[in-house]
Predict the structure of DUF6534 domain-containing protein.
Amino acid sequence: MASLYTEIFGPLLLGALFNYLLFGCLIVQLYDYFMTYREKDRWFIKALVCVIVVAEIIQLVLMTHTIYTTIVLGFNTIEYLLHTPWSSSAAPAINGIISMLIQIFFAWRIWILKNDTVGNIITCLIVAISVLQCSSSIAVTVKYIQIGRAPTRFVELTMVGTLWLSGSLVCDTMISVVMVYLLKQSKKKASFKASEAMVNTLIINTIETGAITTIFALIELVFFLNNPENFFHICFLYILGRLFSNVLLAVLNGRDRVRRAGKMDGYIAHGSDSQDLDLSFRSFYRSQNSQQNGATLPLHDINRCMDRVGQTQADYVSGRNNFLDRSTKDLPL
């Protein structure tokens, strides 16, 4: 019995500990989001964040009930080894709903970036796969209740469980690949070096955030298919749902950082231009002094020209930054 107890509740406890850790990260990101974007973002983005947070709180409460009931109340008994608490069945459905909402949000981003026939087809395909994996996750919850919440009968969930996890994996992979492709296409059309730097940052962020959820979905699928009768895959199940929520808020909170990085890169890239022009003007002035034995333009004329050069550079930098603000204000970065 000790071996069975360890196989079931060991991974369950580890998954719960990582869940609490990721929920703490989510709260920090939620605070940053509402401090920065509570008046800037569109209402449906703020509504999405609120729904996700409420779902995470519900999941956390149910998971805590499962852990306390099985490990504390059921310590050294066989009852909860044969039938887990009622709260344990909710995790797949809640994870599926959270991931579907976030995947549809990313599909909306793709539709904004590529609003044409191909973009519409890709968006509809991602949404369809996302709804499919969500429906499969709910089916897993329903089926688990029907088999009496018995871990020893997990093998009966193989078909719907595989459909759920593979659908989530395919959806995450598609989102990452399409986003990177569209951003690379945008990079080719960038007019400013700062815009290129901003797109490069977005590409890196997209790969990093997409890789996190994709890798964990793949690991969970492998563990589930390898031995569905134990709880090793449940550890990654608890982690994966929290990763989706943290990725969403990381993307939303990172928008201003990306814009500021683009502007700073623009200042560095173009800040030397005015200095070079300044240097060239002064060198020209000195050379004229030496060649014409003092017969040079009046100093106030040179200063006036220098002021115009500086003003032109300032107008350029200001115009570029205004362009970045306009181009990213409504774009769902």
Q: What stands out?
A: Residues 2-265 form a domain with the Rhopdopsin 7-helix transmembrane proteins fold (CATH 1.20.1070). The chain is about 85% helix and 0% strand. The chain has a mean pLDDT of 77. The longest helix spans residues 232-291.
